[in-house]
Amino acid sequence: MKRKMIGLLLCLTLAISLLSGCKKNDANSTSGDTKPTDAAKQTNTPVPTKEASNPVEKKIQLKLGIWPEDTLTDDINMHKEFVKRFNETHPNVEVVPAYYKYAVDTFVPKAESGNLPTIFESWYTEPQKLIAGGFVADITDNLQKRGWLDTLNPSIRDLLSKDGRIYGIPRDGYALGLMLNVELFEEAGLVDANGYPIYPKTWDELAETAKKIKDATGMAGICILAKDGAGGWHFSNIAWAFGATLTKDNGDGTFTANVDSAEAIAAMQYVKDLRWKYDVLTPDPINEDWGTGFANLGVGTAAMYIAANDAVNQPTQVNGLPVDKLAMCALPAGPNGAQYSLSGGTPYMFSKDATSEEIDAALDYLEIMGKAPVATDEAIAGMKADAENRVANGVPVIPRFPCWIVQKVLDAESQIIKDYGNVDPKMFESYFNATKQSGNLRMEEPGSAQDLYAELTKVLQAVVTDKDADVAALMQKANANYQSILDDLFKK
Amino acid sequence: MKEKKKVPKTSWKKKDFLGWMIMLPSIILFAFFVWEPLIESVRLSLYTAKGIHTEDFVGFDNYLRVLRHPDFMDALKNTFVYIGWSLVIGFAVPIIIALLITETIHFRSLFRVGVYFPNIIPGLATVMLWGFFFRPGNTGVLNILLSKIGIESQKWLNNAALTIPLIVLTMTWKSAGSTSLIYMAGISGINPELYEAATIDGAGIRQRIRFITLPSVFSLAKTLLILQVIAVFQILYEPLVMTNGGPNNASISIMQLVYNYAFRDYKYPMAAALSVMICIVLIILSGIYFKLTTKKED
Predict the structure, then answer these.
(1) Of A371, A392, A420, which residue constitutes the final position of a domain?
(2) Alpha-carbon distance B230 to B224, whole Å?
(3) Which of A391, A468, B20, B276 has the fewest C-beta atoms under 10 angstroms from its C-beta?
(4) Where do Polar residues bias regions lie (chain A) (predicted)?
């Protein structure tokens, strides 16, 4: 009997401890609420002077998901300096470094459990998905108050808003261009008298240039992606140059797939030729994604890569290409001279749980970083710190894409590039000239871009692995598939 | 009569109360971490959702969407192709290994450790390792080896017809060892007198295997066959890492489709709908499994 009682007691304690374990978790997750009560309990004890000077304001937490990752010590030191300056004007804000690299498999659990940092970076493909899922905060009013709304570059504003409300602001804008590994161009003798790489101006020239490089160095001429959505994303830009439009907006809320047009098929045939006629691709395009593309370019296993200006640190700082061996030119023109650059932005977005004050604090922090549309002394100091950091780490200091249209900011930026420029502007001249031409920048295809990219990626995989692939038939199938997805999504 | 009925009832209660109390913590755990999410995902599959929060009841719309999606037929077909190839390539291998090792006299435990070895490598490491072997072009390990004997480089995983068999080969390399341990255990349970008698009667090694060993492991093999089918039906990370479902959907599996819906597109209701469908298939397969195993015990 005694033994039974002991057993029973043990079981009960186990069950109770289990349940109380759950309860403890609850308490943790609302620690934000419990803290003030703790403080309230201690009203008898003297409060720190800082708070005494401002007794009504309660301490708020700013979790910075944009904190640099642990290995980038220089960047961290720079941010520590930012925090020091930030706290001079915001004594009531506790800045918490909460480095978060956006990843699709961690994002939703983090958001749903209320553990997202106040501010974090995302990717070009994500904002609409995040807005639809209700994971990010509406910051329209905060921007309105600051007068930032009208200074946003309209194309980027579209990317970050839904039904007229804005959910993020750009860290950088970007436009796709062609990155060149100058070392390989030199090795293949493709440089002019002044040492500048002779870059291709049409897609046909690109194939020939790539062939020359492959013959001379044994390395791939160009890295074409075919692993995931990024493959279709890059391809849509090639298709535009060939005259294709991949989705038609019917204007009534529905869309028509237009993947099997003659122009799109010609563009896909061109990619197929790169693999089988010219043989200038990396060995395994279906395992190349955004990151491996930069690795190939940076370490010199591919000479050209479609990429954007906001990622110049990838081949250089991350993959070790000397800063003066990176060049960037406009994407080549198609058979009829059409030339476009796909543009978008890398956004800062805000946790859905962030309060208006927390969002304001985050926006103030961005001002200090020099990433906001203001040209205060603080902001300029932030820009300078960023430029110094880039120089120290061998990252090209080049003009930012104008995501804010404020002349004062643009002037301040160009002054900083003049002061800190560590690369020959001629290496990037063709790229920036192209993006300034009217009609050059083009936004992603309307409809359901991600599904379009998924379909295109399948075709890309088929044409780079199968010499006998029937391009027209594959594109027709992709068209039918994409149309069925569009019908599912948009027809009521 | 009444008295008699009452007595066993109360003793049942007394006897089992402590048992139930012992089980209580795990029942709570199960309810909380297994059953509740299961029921929740069935519910999710019948609704539209914002993120993972359900909004409107839409009945079987999500199921129809999944069925209409262009990738669905490819994934379903591939999953059965995976099962087919895993039976062709993977089913006999552990039996053969087990037979060979049990018939070996010297270094038996060395071989046993040897075949189990790939099992201790983490799954992801295995598929990445074989990814390097199968790389196309002249940087792949297999192609480098083949070039030494003058055979030109192959496309391996990039060849749509070879992709699935090669992925199955990788899986077999990794897990055949542990399965063969089960067979070895089964074989060691056979009464040695049978072998002695057979040997005295003049049976050779082939006859011993055919008339004693194989019939003895037959019911074990039947069970493992169903388990294998259930396991391969849920193949996910091998194609995800080695080919990402490519080229042109040649290796996409049904579980990868779930992964794509949930973690690439954040379309949780569709992912839930497809999961429920997979669950139903697996319940049927498990039913068959239970039937087979209970027969064996009888």
Answers:
(1) A420
(2) 10
(3) A468
(4) 27-47
Q: What is the pLDDT of residue A14?
A: 60
Establish if A480 touches chain B: CB-CB under 8 angstroms.
yes
Q: Would residue A197 count as lying in a domain?
A: yes
Q: Is B227 within the bounds of a domain?
A: yes
Q: Which residue of A287, A299, A468, A485 is the best one to mutate when testing the B interface, meaning the one whose CB has the most B CBs within 10 A?
A: A287
- Three-class secondary structure of residue B65 per DSSP: helix
Residue the block writes with tokens 């693999």: A275
- A-chain residues near B265 (CB < 8 A): 129, 450
φ, ψ at B40 (rounded to 5°):
-60, -40
A112·B51 Cβ contact <8 A: yes
CB–CB contact B138 A283 (8 Å)? yes
Question: How many angstroms separate the CA atoms of B150 and B152, rounded?
Answer: 6
Residue recorded with tokens 């139903």: B280
Pairing of strands A93-97, A60-64: parallel
Are residues B171 and B230 located together in one domain of the fold?
yes
Closest CB to A465 among B24, B32, B160: B160
Cis upstream peptide for B247 (omega within 30°) = yes
Question: Cα Rg for chain B, rounded, in angstroms?
Answer: 25
Structure confidence by residue, pLDDT tens digits, A211-255: 999 999 999 999 999 998 899 999 999 999 999 999 999 989 899
Strand partners, B50: B53
State whether A237 and A324 are in the same domain.
yes
Q: What's the token pair of residue B11?
A: 């003793």
- Enter the tokens of residue B172: 């077999």
Percent of chain B whose pLDDT exceeds 70? 95
Round the average pLDDT of chain B to a whole number and report it: 88
- Report d(CA B43, CA B66) in Å as an integer: 16
d(CA B296, CA B219): 7
Q: Is residue B77 part of a domain?
A: yes
- In terms of DSSP bridges, do strands A119-121 and A93-97 run parallel, antiparallel, or are they unpaired? unpaired
Q: Which residues of B touch A466 (CB under 8 A)?
A: 160, 247
| Count of C-beta atoms within a 10 Å radius of residue B102 | 18
Show residues of chain B in contact with A12, CB under 8 Å: 21
Q: Which residue has the tokens 């692939």?
A: A469
Shared domain for B79 and B186, answered yes or no, is yes
Q: Which of A8, A19, A465 sits opposite B247 (nearest CB)?
A: A465
Residue B275: its H or E element:
helix B268-297
Question: Could you tell me if residue B294 is inside a domain?
Answer: no
Q: What is the CATH number of the domain that holds A114?
A: 3.40.190.10
Distance in angstroms (rounded) separating the CA atoms of residues B98 and B179: 9
Residue A44 has pLDDT above 60, yes or no: no
- Give the range of the structural domain holding residue B244, as residue numbers without chain letter: 72-251
Pairing of strands A302-308, A161-162: unpaired
CA dist., res. B199 & res. A83, Å (int)? 84
What range defines the domain where residue A384 resides?
60-173+344-420
- Contact (Cβ atoms closer than 8 angstroms) between residue A303 and residue A210: yes
Q: Do A488 and B68 touch (CB under 8 A)?
A: yes
Compare CB distances from A228 to B69, B159, B244 and report the shortest one's residue. Answer: B244
Q: Which residues of A touch B21 (CB under 8 A)?
A: 7-8, 11-12, 15
- At A243-263, the pLDDT tens digits run 999 999 998 989 999 999 999
Distance from C-alpha of A464 to C-alpha of A288, rounded to nearest angstrom: 12
Query: Exposed, middle or buried: residue A34 (CB in 10 Å: 0-12, 13-18, 19+)?
Result: exposed
For residues A83 and A156, state if they share a domain. yes
**B47 SS3 class:** strand
C-alpha closest to that of A126 among A106, A102, A149, A143: A102
Interface mutation vs chain B, best among A466, A474, A485, A487, most B CBs within 10 Å: A466
Which one of B66, B248, B258, B260 makes the best mutation probe of the A interface by having the most chain A beta carbons within 10 Å? B248
